[in-house]
Specification:
about 325 residues, alpha/beta, inorganic pyrophosphatase (n-terminal core), Diaminopimelate Epimerase, Chain A, domain 1, 2 domains, six-stranded parallel β-sheet, six-stranded mixed β-sheet, 12 helices, binds guanosine-5'-monophosphate, binds manganese (II) ion
Length: about 325
């Protein structure tokens, strides 16, 4: 509670607050960002909401989502930077780092057990089902009135990070907070309709390629999906369309660890090829027996026991072989 009260004092004393969440955002990264930002706006504070990546189409229905910016030039200076759902500061992406490092006070709010504890104040709870759960606790203590927009953002963060109340992080708070959010105006049908209801034709075609790419280790315990840049190009999709596809690889009988390797576009800045090598994101999912956050940490990434990830510059054969070798230890 001491940290929370110090954070509240700091936010109350700030005039301009930057909120930022991790690249390749999921529903929790976006829901936490919007819920925190809208709450500060309700306190009549100047806020800047930042995410480096494109917002996946399924989350673009969220209230005020268009307020999220992907560049900070001209927005600084900030009195306080609040970093959400990031286990290390670098997760916000290279574009925001210099601005955040220049900000006098950094607040770290997260639920990853691999959190490095960066920043001046921390609210880290790996028992929280989502960062949105911690944001809910914070804004409740600040006695901010939760309107339908804030409620929808928190509900979406918890609903998606618990895999619709199916994953191991589903706790009592997930239900009690979501129940409260519905009372405040969140519409479960509307959220579910957007998050799971409709996909572009390209994303369905990408799913087809993802399913087709599945390889299983000799011992039958590891499944591997691969999505290359060529597959994104052929289907008119982008890396943000990958969200959720790994669950198909995880659901195969006897699988202990599922891996999804996807390639980043050969774009600008950080995404340029390094020494002719391509840049890949690797997502890992476990059935609970193996702690995949430890595997991700070996490659400079992190996450949760059952869901983790990392990014590498390599070539596709090397990373596929490396991941397949993990099966020997399963
Ligand atoms: P995914 O890889 O499926 O996007 O994410 C799974 C989980 O691992 C999420 O909780 C996410 O925040 C975390 N994660 C994914 N990539 C990285 C990474 O490069 N570094 C760290 N620290 N965590 C990651
Ligand atoms: Mn996240």
């Amino acid at each position: 509670m001491k940290q929370m009260d110090q954070i509240i004092t700091q936010l109350t004393a700030s005039d301009h607050v930057l909120f930022a969440s991790h690249t390749d955002p999921d529903g929790d990264a976006i829901g936490s960002l919007l819920a925190a930002g809208l709450s500060m706006k309700a306190m009549k504070k100047r806020t800047t909401l930042y995410n480096e990546s494109a917002i996946p189409a399924v989350y673009r229905f969220l209230p005020e989502v268009e307020a999220i910016v992907s560049h900070l030039d001209g927005a600084a200076p900030f009195d306080t930077a609040v970093v959400l759902d990031c286990s290390d500061l670098e997760r916000v992406g290279a574009g925001a780092l210099p601005f955040i490092r220049e900000t006098p006070v950094i607040i770290n709010i997260d639920h990853h057990p691999t959190n490095t504890g960066f920043g001046d104040f921390q609210l880290i709870d790996s028992d929280a089902c989502a960062t949105a759960e911690i944001i809910y606790r914070l804004i409740s203590r600040m006695e901010i009135v939760i309107d339908a927009d804030i409620a929808t953002a928190i509900y979406t963060g918890i609903f998606t990070d618990t895999g619709s109340f199916r994953f191991a992080n589903t706790n009592q708070a997930a239900f009690s907070i979501c129940n409260g959010m519905v009372a405040c105006g969140a519409d479960p049908y509307n959220v579910a309709k957007h998050v799971y209801g409709t996909y572009s034709l390209g994303r369905i075609k990408l799913l087809n390629r993802a399913l087709d790419s599945i390889e299983i280790s000799d011992n039958g315990r590891l499944s591997l999906m691969t999505l290359t840049r060529e597959m994104f190009d052929a289907t008119g999709t982008h890396p943000e369309d990958v969200d959720g596809l790994i669950n198909y690889a995880r659901r195969i009988r006897d699988i202990k660890v599922a891996v999804l390797i996807h390639e980043y576009p050969n774009g600008s800045g950080d995404e340029k090829r390094k020494n002719g090598q391509r840049r890949f994101h690797v997502s890992l999912r476990s059935d609970g027996a193996v702690d995949v956050s430890r595997i991700a940490a070996l490659f400079g990434g992190g996450g949760h026991r059952n869901a983790a990830g990392f990014t590498v510059h390599t070539d596709i054969t090397d990373i596929k072989n490396g991941m397949m070798e993990l099966a020997n230890g399963l």
